[in-house]
Amino acid sequence: MTERSDGQITVSGLTKVYRKVRAVDDLSFTVAPGRVTGFLGPNGAGKTTTLRMLLNLVTPTSGTATIGGRHYADLEDPIRAVGAILEASGAHRGRTGRAHLKMLCYAAGIPASRADDVLNLVGLTPAAKRKFKGYSLGMRQRLGIGAALLGDPQVLILDEPANGLDPEGIRWMRDLLKGLADEGRTVLVSSHLLSEMEILADDLVIIAAGKLVRQGTVTDIIDSMGAAQLRVRTPKPDELIAALDPATVVRRNEDGALLVSGVDARTLGDRALEARVPLYELVADKPDLENVFLQLTAGKAAIR
Ligand SMILES: Nc1ncnc2c1ncn2[C@@H]1O[C@H](COP(=O)(O)OP(=O)(O)OP(=O)(O)O)[C@@H](O)[C@H]1O
Q1: Structural domain tally of the chain?
Q2: Which residues neighbour 270 within 8 Å (Cβ) at sequence distance 6 or greater?
Q3: Whether the complex's predicted ipTM surpasses the cut of 0.95
Q4: Which residues line ligand 1 (CB under 6 A)?
Q5: Of the candidates 197, 223, 249, which is a domain's last residue?
Q6: Inside any domain, residue 41
Q7: Which of 9, 42, 99, 207 is least enclosed, having the fewest CB within 10 Å?
Q8: Is there a single domain that holds both residue 86 and residue 193?
Q9: Contact (Cβ atoms closer than 8 angstroms) between residue 287 and residue 4
Q10: How many angstroms separate the alpha carbon of residue 79 from the centre of ligand 1?
């Protein structure tokens, strides 16, 4: 099957205009097989709309989105080519997880025995005979991932798959997705959990306000921001923030320190002196993905 040999996702000039908003705006990027690619953006950036266009659930205003060189609608055997979860999976409330997956197998012409394999894969075997209405959010999420895997697809497209998972569930999913990528599959996953993405993803596509902000490996993107984040301690944080350029990104750390990016230590020290703000600590930390993400998307309208 051609989809198996080439699971590259290619988005080219993709645009979706709703009445009032350009949800996706001339977006182009590629997603390679054999890697986990994180799809990141602030709320309302256009991630879900992009994924829905890839899956032929929303019609683009212009541009194209293809999987292995084909539009989703033209795939010969879509369930074996692409598995997707777009939100916590739905199922008939009175049906068991096992019956739900068997029904999907039947509908897709997949042997029913695959349902049990997949339940095992997603850790739901002990709950296989319980009804969906009694499933927790994390269990529903696992069932959704199971449904996406039924066709043993070359490409996986997952919108916020970690939603509702506890820390152990998140680690389980990380291992599962990394394993699937190691088998040569294409794994595209959107998430707001930046520290998790930093561990999980090989590559990133970052968008804001419908446009591409950055594409590359996690390491390259973090390194490209070069300037380290500053950790600052002062008894007058509000005065210090007021003395800094408005484009500077400041986060308040739980331990009371300020994490500042977009300004170098010397400038910050000078500004503090001018504003007569005492500094008790001024240290440069290596930037993390959260910090880089905030810098890259700062000032780009999110909720539109
Ligand atoms: N069916 C629709 N009709 C009108 N506007 C829409 C529709 N779907 C999405 N939008 C708008 O398009 C923009 C992008 O939405 P989208 O859901 O794709 O963003 P997102 O990046 O997935 O956001 P989040 O991280 O909050 O889930 C938003 O401004 C949203 O309000």
Answers
A1: 2
A2: none
A3: yes
A4: 18, 21, 23, 41, 43-49, 304
A5: 223
A6: yes
A7: 99
A8: yes
A9: no
A10: 26
